[in-house]
Amino acid sequence: MLNINFDPFPVLSTARLLLRPVSCNDLNEVFFLRSDAEVMRYIGKPPAASPEETIAYIHDLENAVAVNEGIVWAITLKNEPALIGLIGFRRFYKEHYRGELGYGLHPGYHGKGIMQEAFTAVLTYGFEALGLHSVEANVDKENIASIKLLERNNFVKEAHFRENYFFEGKFIDSVIYSLISP
What we know:
alpha+beta
């Protein structure tokens, strides 16, 4: 079974980015991401209604790290400490050596290769440091940018669940992509 320990928290660095822990100091930025209609369009959850709700979300992220059940990094530029996105493994299937990857980026940073850079760092960490055998991502079939990111990184479509998720009065398809350890 997968043995995970996030103590100390693994800060990741790339050419332009620093991936660090999310904290309550990031409240305004996380609240924006969790309440912005464009960012939340394909998440299938209601947008955050208040800063207090966002604080609870941040505490959930911190708790997941503390009990080694999940890890989400704040995406920041090396020269600017403000959070511009989130990426991480929201859950693990430890007995299967598998993690579920999730991510989101401030719209002002789309199209600059930032998510690709963060994606590569997190996948490398997952396969090399954690010993994952596979990584999955669950995406809305309409989220073309996310699907392109996954396919560009050699993720393969595993399943397409038709109308399996009910949100805001309609049924939504879920598509599962996965990547096996290189």
